[in-house]
Write a structure and sequence with these properties.
Elements (H helix, E strand, L loop, with lengths): L6 H17 L19 H6 L1 H6 L3 H10 L4 H6 L5 H11 L5 H7 L5 H33 L5 H23 L16 H23 L14 H9 L1 H21 L3 H34 L4 H22 L3 H24 L10 H10 L3 H21 L20
Helix pairs in contact: 4-6, 8-9, 8-11, 10-14, 10-15, 11-13, 12-13, 13-14, 13-17, 14-15, 14-17, 15-17
């Protein structure tokens, strides 16, 4: 069809182009990169842990933070990764790093930082030695009132005990023994510490009196294990040193490891070496205290060493984010000691003397100190076994998380 203005001429090329388009084979669209949207399983995790990923110096620090927030290898599988380390590597690669200039501006000057560090180390060292000094002062005060009435000696001893407890509390709130997760863990842990420490000082005398049919209160004057008390009070200093040694080498092992298996292989011998190192320092303190304040017996040294290792492992677990396990170990030792005393008292009832035979046999074979030795050794071994598993995770050696220490912990 022809129009006066040449419409057929303009329509012909259009019809040819349309026919060519119909006969031409369909062109394959260029491959587009996979979109990162709702189908990206990692994006929500990136937003949730944005600050952690932006400030991390390596992927292992992100892995530690993820584990502390309850992300396990099973959780990582839901994000299409084989383990937490693989997931952390993707987050580290995808999240931009924070501006280092901001961090450098907030950091102290090069001259002020070492001086402040030296001052803080000196203060912490003094705080860790303070319980031992207070305990020696309390022993000297008791010796000075030896001829005073029983009430006066009891008041002096109670005041000295309270001061030692306060000094220990100050010591564990600073330096390597300070918990990274404040407010976490059961509140009864302090009660179990006081019970086990009090039993180490007065438990042998009390059990001996119970087995003999006493004690004849209020006239019986308690006899304290002075050497044990002084050695345990001074043991806070080597405990802090060993905890610092473990923490530093644990972080180095975390930085050098490329997987959970490799990290576990580094941490397990480190924990055993740290425990043996503290045990050696504690035994040296106990033998030195026995030489100065009088020998309490070989079994008393064994019992005090077992208690010291138990307290050290409990604090180490609490520092690295496992206060529940630490409290359980301490409560187990306290329960065994309380059970031994209760069985001796229950055995006095008519028809129940056989209940006290196990405690009597143990005390006859190794002395009254055998009871706390068995109780504390069993609890310490339990904590050591648990630590060989719990302290091998990246979360035990990373920065402190913002949430509760053991919330949703694997």
């Amino acid at each position: 069809m022809t129009t006066p203005d040449g419409g057929a001429t303009r329509a012909a090329p259009a019809m040819e182009e349309e026919g060519a388009a119909r006969t031409a084979p369909p062109r394959k669209e260029a491959a587009r990169p996979a979109r990162r949207g709702p189908a990206d399983p990692v994006r929500s995790l990136m937003h949730h842990h944005q600050e952690l990923c932006a400030r991390a110096v390596d992927a292992l620090e992100i892995a530690a933070g993820l584990e502390a927030h309850g992300v396990t290898d099973r959780t990582a599988a839901r994000f299409r990764h084989r383990d937490v380390f693989s997931l952390a590597e993707e987050l580290y690669a995808r999240v931009p790093r924070a501006d280092p200039a901001t961090t450098a501006a907030a950091a102290p000057g090069p001259a002020a930082a070492p001086a402040a560090a030296r001052g803080s180390r000196s203060v912490r060292g003094a705080l860790h030695l303070l319980p031992g000094a207070v305990c020696v002062a309390a022993v000297a005060a008791l010796a000075s009132v030896g001829a005073a009435p029983v009430d006066a000696r009891t008041a002096v001893g109670a005041a000295g005990g309270v001061l030692v407890v306060l000094a220990v509390r100050l010591g564990v709130r600073s330096g390597p023994l300070r918990r990274r997760h404040q407010g976490a863990g059961p509140r009864t842990a302090g009660l179990w510490v006081c019970w086990t420490a009090g039993y180490a000082v007065y438990g042998d005398w009390l059990l001996r009196q119970l087995l003999a049919g006493g004690p004849d209160l209020p006239y019986a004057a308690p006899r304290a294990a002075v050497a044990t008390a002084v050695a345990l009070a001074f043991a806070l200093a080597p405990a802090a040193g060993c905890a610092h040694w473990f923490a530093v080498r644990g972080r180095r092992g975390l930085a050098a490891s490329r997987g959970l298996g490799e990290l576990a292989a580094r941490v397990r011998p480190l924990l055993l070496a740290t425990t043996l190192l503290f045990l050696g320092a504690l035994v040296a303190l106990l033998l030195g205290a026995d030489a100065v304040f009088g020998d309490d017996g070989t079994m008393a040294v064994v019992a005090a060493a077992a208690l010291g290792v138990l307290l050290f492992l409990a604090r180490l677990l609490a520092v690295h984010g496992f206060p529940e396990a630490a409290a359980t170990g301490l409560a187990s030792a306290a329960a065994l000691e309380a059970l031994a005393l209760s069985l001796v008292l229950i055995a006095r009832l008519p028809g129940l003397p056989p209940l006290g035979l196990p405690v009597e046999a143990l005390a006859t074979a190794g002395g009254p100190a055998a009871v706390p030795a068995v109780a504390c050794t069993a609890a310490a071994l339990g904590l050591l076994v648990h630590g060989l598993r719990a302290l091998t995770g990246a979360c035990a050696h990373g920065p402190a998380p913002s949430g509760p220490a053991e919330a949703h912990r694997p």
